[in-house]
Amino acid sequence: GIVEARVKSLLNEENADETPVAPRVGIIMGSDSDLPVMKEAAKVLKDFDVSAEVRIVSAHRTPELMFSYASSARERGIQVIIAGAGGAAHLPGMVAALTPLPVIGVPVRASALDGLDSLLSIVQMPRGVPVATVAINNATNAALLALRMLGVSDTALQARMVQFQEDARDIVLEKTEKLEK
Ligand code: RP5
Fold first, then answer.
1. What is the similarity comment for this entry (predicted)?
2. Are 57 and 29 in contact (CB under 8 A)?
3. Over the stretch 14-48, which tens digit does the pLDDT of each residue have?
4. The CATH number of the domain covering residues in 2-153
5. Residue with the nearest Cα to atom 2 of ligand 1?
6. Per-domain residue ranges for the chain?
7. Does ipTM surpass 0.90 in this model?
C-alpha cells in the first residue's frame, strides 16, 4: 500500500523486495510523521542484521488495527516491540497491555510541548504494565535495547553488542589520544 511504499522510500531500502525473513522486532508508530525519528531504529537493527517490520499503527485513529497487531505479534514470531508516538502518546502503553512481549516506548517530539508530553504519557505506566521508555526522539537507543534483550538468548547477537561497545570505547580513546598530541 501507499504507507508501505512511503516507509520503504524513507528507509531507503534498496533490497526491500527480496525474500522476506520473519521479523523479530516490530517497529510501530502512531503516524508517518514519526518516521524521520523512528527510521533510526530500523537502521540500527539492519546494521545488526536483525529482521524488523515497520508499521503505522495509531492508538487513536486505528484502534482496531492496534488491537489486532498487538494481540497477534507474539504468535507471528515478534520478540520485542518498539513503539513510537508523540503528544497524547498512548500507543506503547496500550500495546503493552495487549501482549506479553517487552515493549520499548520512544517519546517523539511532536507537539507544542516539545516532547515532554510524549515522554510523560509513555513513562507513567501503572504498576503491572511496563513500558521501557527511552529518551525523547532516541529511537537509536530503543533499537540497541531491543538488541540487548534479544542477545540474552542469542549469543551471536550478544557478541556483536560487545563488539559495538568496544568500538564505541575505542572511538572515544582515539579522540583523547588526538587531543593529547
Ligand atoms: C501521534 O500524534 C503520532 O504518534 C504523532 O507523533 C502525533 C502527530 O501525528 P500527525 O498529526 O502528524 O499524524 O498520534
1. In the C-terminal section; belongs to the AIR carboxylase family. Class I subfamily.
2. yes
3. 455 566 789 999 999 999 999 999 999 999 999 99
4. 3.40.50.1970
5. 86
6. 2-153
7. yes
